[in-house]
Amino acid sequence: MRSASMNKFMSWLSPLVLAVAAGCASTAGPAPQPVPVKVFVGAMFEIGQNTGDRAGEFQHWYERYWRNATPMPVKGALSPVYCNTDGVCGAVLGMGKVNSSSSMQAILLDPRFDFSRAYYVISGVAGTPPSRGTIGAVSWATWLVDYDLGHRWAPEENTAGAPTFMPRKGYEEYRRFRLNPDLVAWAMKLSADTPLKDSDSARTYRLRYPDTVARGAPFVGTGTHMTGDTFFHGPGMSRQAQYIAKLYGADDYVITEMEAAAITLVIKRTHGTDRVMSLRGMVNFDQGNPQETTLQHLDPAPGQTAGGFAETVENIAAVGTRVVDYIVVNWAQWQGGVPAAGAR
Predict the structure, then answer these.
(1) What angle do CA 85, 90, 94 make, to 5 degrees?
(2) Calpha distance 130→207 (Å, rounded)
(3) How far apart are CA 75 and CA 340, in angstroms?
(4) For a designed S-S bond to 175, which of 5, 149, 259, 286 qualifies (C-beta 3.0 to 4.6 A apart)?
(5) Which residues, other chains included, contact 167 with Cβ-Cβ below 8 Å and sequence gap of 6+?
């Protein structure tokens, strides 16, 4: 049983505790509002720093949008997120399916960001078949196809010339994504005439290939981007990628990369895919020229590489920023969804 003096003390203490608690609440202020993301740019790697040295996939984006942005570390993501005052955010997600998609998932679930109306640009370098692309060219994906979700076996265990891949049942919702045709049409409308850089080394290297497209100048195009953790290479693997694209009803295979389908699956489960874009620049061919073996092409002698990497990463950002800037400037028309492709 409390004494009279104890009761008196408690009656004096209670108002004081309440007052202190109220004071703490008032000084803490309201919780900060999440950043309303308009466009998120995800790159896969950077070579060194985000600015001032040799540029990888992220640097040109960073220098355009986030020079003065404060890095925002995200638990579970490879690198910090950067955002500007216009609602353009970006990060380096990491190379490969697991690395990149786990980073994207962590960022999407961070309550400091509001992705409910966001558009996404999955951006990076890639390979291309010499029959469909060239060094320095840039491609918007119409389809994303996963190269790996199926059964494979050695060619010598099969009928000569027959496919050595069979899709695995149960992966129908994960193995391909058709990206919003209106959004792809907008991307091409806004960026197809972007002036693209080229290099003397790339011009010389292209002449090793007989294909008309491979020998031509860089351009902006579209097609299927094939996502595989394995760096598949050689004419046989290239034919298999094209076979898979056609098997799934997708457009021609034009890009080999390692992340886009996995990242898109993560986005789909959270916000859908209507606002996803995949943008890739071609820095290598997916096979050697007729005078070299696949292993020779994978491990070239000094001075025998394609060149053109620096120009290609500039081309990617030059093409992509046209679309990002247009969406941001015209946000009143874009925030509710992709306008009809014929409108402008």
Answers:
(1) 165
(2) 11
(3) 38
(4) 149
(5) 149, 150, 151, 175, 244, 247, 248
- pLDDT tens digits, one per residue of 214-236: 999 999 999 999 999 988 999 99
Residue burial 100-131, b: 16+ Cβ < 10 Å; e: rest: bbbbbbbbbebeebebebbbbbbbbbbbbbbb
Looking up tokens 């020079």, which residue turns up?
Answer: 67
Going by C-beta distance under 8 Å and a sequence separation of 6 or more, which residues neighbour residue 336? 117
Extract the tokens encoding 70.
């404060």
* CATH code of the region 34-332: 3.40.50.1580
Residue 344 has pLDDT above 60, yes or no: no
**Which helix (H) or strand (E) element contains residue 51?**
none
Q: State both tokens at 259.
A: 């992340």
Torsion over CA of 336, 184, 122 and 323, rounded to 10 degrees? -70
Q: Residue 225's closest CA among 285, 141, 284, 287?
A: 141
Domain limits, the chain: 34-332
pLDDT, averaged across the chain:
91
Total residue count of the chain as it appears in this document: 344
Residue 62 confidence (pLDDT): 98
Q: Which two tokens stand for residue 204?
A: 């010389």
- The answer to whether residues 285 and 136 touch, using CB atoms and an 8 Å cutoff, is no
Q: Which residue has the higher pLDDT, 30 or 19?
A: 30
**CB within 8 Å of 5: residues ≥ 6 apart:** none
CA 67 to chain centre: 20
Please answer whether residues 178 and 336 qualify as being in contact, where contact means their C-beta atoms are separated by less than 8 angstroms: no
Query: What does the pLDDT look like over 255-287, one tens digit per residue?
Result: 999 999 999 999 999 999 999 999 999 999 999
The pairing of strands 150-152 and 276-285 is unpaired
Tokens of 264: 């898109």
Q: Which of 173, 186, 171, 146 is nearest to 277 (CA)?
A: 186
- What local confidence, expressed as pLDDT, does residue 27 receive? 52
- SS3 call for 277: strand
Spell 6-21 as b/e; 16+ CB within 10 A means b: eeeeeeeeeeeeeeee
CA atoms of 228 and 96, how far apart (whole Å): 8
